[in-house]
Amino acid sequence: MKTWSKILVFGFAILALCACVYGRSVPQLRTIYMGDSIFDVGTNKYVKNSVSRCDFVPYGKTRYNKPSGRCSDGFLIPDLINQVIGLPFSKPFLGLKAGSQLPLSINFALDGSGLLDSTHSDWGVVSFNEQLKQLEQLANKISKKNLNDFVVVISSGGNDIAANLQNTAEIDLEAMLVLLEKGLEQLYRYGFRKIVYSSVGPLGCAPIVTSGGNCVREINNLVEQFNGQAREIVLGVARKFPGMRGTFVDGYSLIKSFVENPVKFGFKNGGGCCPNCLSHKNTLSGLCKNPSDYVFWDLIHPTEHTYTLLRREFTKQIAKIL
What we know:
By secondary structure, the chain is α/β, with parallel strands linked by helices. It is about 35% helix and about 10% strand. It has a 6-stranded parallel sheet, sandwiched between helices. The protein has a two-stranded parallel ribbon with strand order 7-8. The longest helix is centred in the last third of the chain and has 24 residues, at about 215-240.
């Protein structure tokens, strides 16, 4: 376990010890995940009309040996964060049964979702704005005091850009940023006080657009522009509202480094293991033998190995806002 992961776990151990000594209870840290396929642990299986899904072979081959609804070969960031914190895997909100006990970790993220309602609207996905409405239903059932136990982790914005890679002039960064800011402010009004926002990854380095392993600078420039402003929004909202804590995870720079120098980080290839997965046809054709050798699983989603290397940055940032 890496240093920051150890610090996070050690910190909770100390709090628990102090609680025992002084007879006080320590709030149970809980997590909520929102956004897109980077965090979707199976919500796509519960959206019947959605054509954006990862519930077919060979997704999940490394960790589950069967599709789990995760858009990778194994664990995603929510799984890895919860392991460090000591929580069970997050449960898709749409999969919760009425009247059942509320899980310690809840997941609203959906494959294909974007900040804009219009992104992949014809795919039957649930946008970030719609996820906020789902979360409001949940927040109304929890006391304001207990809402403070939750860390809300968000990955949204990548699909708004990826949906227009063939015509980047159609990408509306300003509208995306406005909706992000409104969404974060809405979370505060619901009663949540700890927010983690994950950058959009280096889409210009994804196998779906690269040629010969070279990243597409024009696309990455757009992503960098969005990420820079998104970071300022996250930190600005945290400063604006009393008690609000917000932090930004720069996964973009890390993944870009993996692609540009894969061997240095334990990979053999900066491309994708499953070149036909996104097509939903002949998915086993060209499938690599060892996904951990690759930065990407399919043509756009990272492998579990990549997510494992990102986990340290996420736990580091979460520790800052506790």
